Amino acid sequence: MNYHSRGFRGLAAALALSACASFPAVTLAQTTSKTDQWIHVRVENKEDKGETVRVNVPIDMAVKVLPAIHKDCLQDGKVRIDNAHMNDVDVRAILDAVRTAKDGEYVTVQSNENDVRVAKNAGYLYIHVTDKEHRAKAAKHTQDKEDATKPGPARESRVEIKVPMKVVDALFSAGKDELDIVAALHALSSSGDTELVSVKDDQNTVRVWIDSKNVSD
Length: 217
Hints:
alpha+beta; eight-stranded antiparallel sheet; four-stranded antiparallel sheet; 30% helix; globular
């Protein structure tokens, strides 16, 4: 995998982190009304004895709880990024360039290892990453283990992220090397129903979205 692809996957990870950072709040009572926006997370394990985990958190509760959490890189509602230049890619500079540019397809990478797409349209930032290297390794492992003469199953890891640009602006409003999760949640609460993150591979399926329902699908 080349360093450009690793950089964009790092960018995808940073944005996914912003969507999921309110998970610790799930341990508290959920007292908001059904008309408020909720963050939903669903994780499905595809293994033989797999399980499905559902997390439903009202955004306004997460906004109140996060500043009270002081754990590792999460402090006062902000996430510290120790390595601002992830894999030789300046994430902040890329996002600022995308934020101020016109709508369009900014990055398209197609290779034997990865497919990467970064675009902006109608106020949303889109990041799609397909890891073909995962598929190749899985196929090779199956061939080595079972029968080298048979082709392995087609497996790949896909990450799809859709984030309102106003959320990106809020996320990076804290200053250098920090992500302001609380500010991003405030912006997210006014964005309406939105599918934020989808991750699919041969072991797990992860979905993160927001709507006004207090239960997940």
